Each structure stands twice: as structure tokens, then as C-alpha cells.
């Protein structure tokens, strides 16, 4: 289940310190995927991330925390998402350590992988494009 994401170059953040380093000031755009053992993570969320990462515009970094396993890392990500109920799977895009886009579990369970990938790539185009990349 971890390899479903790491095969796409997604880094694992297993501790709160890992998350803090990823989301430090001036860290650019970072997608954090909260992975899970549930069926919608396996059949929808993880494949969608793989599809989205083939898009021309991507975040500067992509990482994952695993709900139920990387407890410290998951809790740190959740602390950085005030007002967002805990959710796994979920995906959050940050810019310089601040959340700018979230896909909650209910967004994932009610969509298929290509639809989720489309939501992610639209967010990448909106939030991750630089002056040298097309929007």
C-alpha cells in the first residue's frame, strides 16, 4: 500500500519532524496524501495520485503519511489543517507550509480515480504553476 505511492516518487513522511521539514517556510508547493488501508484509497486515491503526477504542472514535492501507522506524522498534518475534519484517505496541497487546497475523503469516495486526478491537476494548474510553466 505504501509502494502504491512511492513508485511515483512520493516521499514517505513518517514522523512529525518529517512533516515539519516538508512544510517549512519557503518550501514551495507540497502535496501531502494521507494514505489509508480502505478500499477507496486503493481503488481511487492512490491511482489518482499516480495519474495526476503525470501532469505537466506538479507540486514541488509530494509526500505521504499513513493513517493508522504514521500516527505522529498524520497528527502533525491534521494540526496544520485547522477546521478540516480528520479524513483518510485525503489530500492537502500546501504552499510554504500553509494549506491552499484539500480533497476530503467524501470527495474521494464519491468520485472515480480519473475524476480525482482531474481535480488534483486543476489544483496543480491553479496553485503550482510558475511563470515558466503554462497555467
Describe what you observe in this structure.
It is a single chain. This protein is an alpha/beta fold and 135 residues long. The chain has helices at 3-6, 16-22, 39-52, 71-79, 105-109, 113-127, and strands at 11-12, 29-35, 61-66, 90-95, 98-103. The N and C termini lie far apart (32 Å).
Summarize this, please?
This protein is of the alpha/beta class and about 140 residues long. The chain is about 40% helix and about 20% strand. The protein has a single domain, classed as Glutaredoxin.
Helix-strand makeup class: alpha/beta
Got a strand count?
Answer: 5
Q: Please trace the helix and strand order, writing H or E for each element.
A: HEHEHEHEEHH
CATH architecture: 3-Layer(aba) Sandwich
- Spatial strand sequence of the major β-sheet: 1-3-2-4-5
User: Can you tell me the number of structural domains?
Assistant: 1
The level of helicity is 40-55%
Q: Topology, please?
A:
Layout: H1 3-6, E1 11-12, H2 16-22, E2 29-35, H3 39-52, E3 61-66, H4 71-79, E4 90-95, E5 98-103, H5 105-109, H6 113-127
Parallel strand pairs: 1-3, 2-3
Antiparallel strand pairs: 2-4, 4-5
Helix pairs in contact: 2-4, 3-6
Features:
135 residues; single chain; 6 helices; alpha/beta; 20% strand; 5-stranded mixed beta sheet
Amino acid at each position: 500500500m505504501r509502494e502504491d505511492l512511492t513508485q511515483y516518487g512520493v516521499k514517505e513522511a513518517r514522523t512529525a519532524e518529517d512533516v515539519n521539514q516538508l512544510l517549512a517556510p519557503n518550501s514551495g508547493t507540497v502535496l501531502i496524501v494521507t494514505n489509508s488501508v480502505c478500499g477507496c484509497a486503493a481503488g481511487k486515491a492512490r491511482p489518482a495520485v499516480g495519474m495526476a503526477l503525470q501532469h505537466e504542472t506538479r507540486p514541488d514535492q509530494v509526500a505521504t503519511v499513513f493513517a493508522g501507522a504514521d500516527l505522529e506524522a498524520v497528527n502533525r498534518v491534521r494540526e496544520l489543517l485547522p477546521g478540516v475534519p480528520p479524513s483518510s484517505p485525503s489530500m492537502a496541497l500546501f504552499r510554504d507550509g500553509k494549506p491552499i487546497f484539500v480533497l476530503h475523503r467524501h470527495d474521494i469516495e464519491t468520485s472515480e480515480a480519473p475524476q480525482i486526478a482531474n481535480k488534483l491537476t486543476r489544483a496543480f494548474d491553479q496553485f503550482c504553476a510558475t511563470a515558466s510553466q503554462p497555467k
